[in-house]
Automatic annotation (TrEMBL):
GO terms for biological process: tRNA methylation. PROSITE patterns: SAM_OMT_I. It comes from Desulfosporosinus acidiphilus (strain DSM 22704 / JCM 16185 / SJ4). This is tRNA 5-hydroxyuridine methyltransferase. Homodimer.
Length: 224
């Protein structure tokens, strides 16, 4: 089973999916370029497009994002939200990244559609008002289980939870080969996926593109 990573980290597939997206506008292109130059880990364009599509299909009104960075995924989300009158609240603990993100939100004409919150999501989440119908998680992989417990009370019945990096370069797949320094992160992601997929309150699937995306729907209570 050694070498499994080659099967599960599909750079070529990702590049191909990107060619199917058509041209991104100059703002998204610029953000992609900056992220590449400064090694800021942002979602791939195919994942950005997926988020936009999900928000639009779901006609999401109240969107929560954990992990803004410079706002690349936020712009994809907010553009979807704007079409159906929705709003994005996005959290990041990195002051510099968040203020750069705000600059991009302004340039994108999205200031009215986005509320950026600065701080540790684990501290901010308990203060938010429940009722989000779409939540996107893309922050510290080692903290995903913490986020899950804090997000659960915030997601409305029928709401969607999307989590990035759940396959982490394919290393989350059992018997794959990775450096010992990633042991904790990989273990945390395996526990996260186990817990999420066995949680009867959610219906979950994992999509093997980008860095692995989990998509869950919180079940609605059966009518009494
Ligand atoms: C992978 S980047 C987000 C990329 C962004 N979603 C995109 O695709 O454009 C992860 C971000 O999560 C932030 N982060 C990590 N742990 C956090 C925490 N506990 N609370 C808030 N932000 C956190 C980091 O500062 C970083 O900017």
């Amino acid at each position: 089973m050694k070498g499994l990573i080659i099967l599960f980290y599909p750079f070529e597939m990702e590049r191909y999916l990107e060619t199917l997206l058509g041209e991104r506008d100059s703002l998204l292109r610029e953000m992609e370029e900056i992220a590449l130059q400064e090694t800021i880990p942002v979602v791939t364009p195919a994942v950005g497009n997926f988020l936009n599509l999900m928000v639009t299909i779901n006609r999401s009104q109240s969107i929560l994002e954990i992990g803004t960075a410079i706002g690349y995924s936020t712009v994809w989300l907010a553009r979807g939200a704007k079409k159906c009158g929705g709003h994005v609240t996005t959290i990041d603990m990195n002051r510099d990244r968040l203020s750069r993100a705000e600059g991009y939100f302004e340039r994108a004409g999205l200031l009215q559609s986005i509320t950026p919150l600065k701080g540790d999501a684990r501290k901010i989440l308990p203060s938010l008002t429940p009722g989000y119908d779409f939540v996107f998680v893309d922050a510290a992989k080692g903290e995903y289980l913490d986020y899950l417990n804090l997000i659960d009370p915030l997601i409305a019945p029928g709401g969607i939870l999307v989590v990035d990096n759940v396959l982490f370069r394919g290393w989350v797949v059992p018997e794959s080969n990775f450096a010992p320094k990633y042991e904790r992160m990989v273990g945390g992601l395996r526990r996260f996926l186990q817990e999420l997929s066995q949680n009867p309150e959610y219906v979950t699937t994992v999509l093997p593109f980008g860095d692995g995306i989990s998509v869950s729907r919180k079940v609605e209570a059966a009518p009494a």
